[in-house]
Amino acid sequence: MSEARRGKLKARVTAAVLCLLIAAPSSICTAFFLSQPVHPRQQWISAVRLTELPANGEPSLVNVQLFRHNAWQRVPGRSHPVYVLSSHDDVVVFQSYFHEVLRLPLDYDSNRSLFVTACWRIEFSLDGECLSSSHSDCRLHRIPARTKDGQVYVQL
Q: What predicted TM-score, i.e. pTM, was given to this entire model?
C-alpha cells in the first residue's frame, strides 16, 4: 500500500471515529464520559454476619468480595481476605498480611492467641501490637469497620 493511500485511509478512520463520537446518543456519552467511578475505599462493603463469628472473640479469616464498577454495571472482582474479631458489640478488622509492600501473610495461632507472619515469624497480639522486640515499631493495619443490623461492614 502506498504512502499516500495509507494517509488517506488513516484520515478516513479518524473522521469516522469522530463522527461516531459526535453522533452517539447523548445518554451513552454522558454515562461514559461524565460518570464518576466510585473507589472501593469510599464504600462500606459487607463482610460477614455477626452470627457467623465465634462467640469467644477469636479472629476469623473472612473473604470480602470486592466489586469493579464501570459506567453501566457493578461486576464481581477479586476477594480480599481480612481477619475479623468480635467481642461485646465491638468489631475489629485487620489486614490478612503484614507490611504493605512485602505483604507477608498472617496466620492465627489459636493455641497462643496471637497472629504470626508466615515468613519472618513476627508475632502480634490480638490488638495488632507487635510482640517481637526487634520490630517494636510495627503493628497490624486496622481496617475501618462498623456493624449495622447484625452485619459487619468494612472499608477496603
A: 0.69
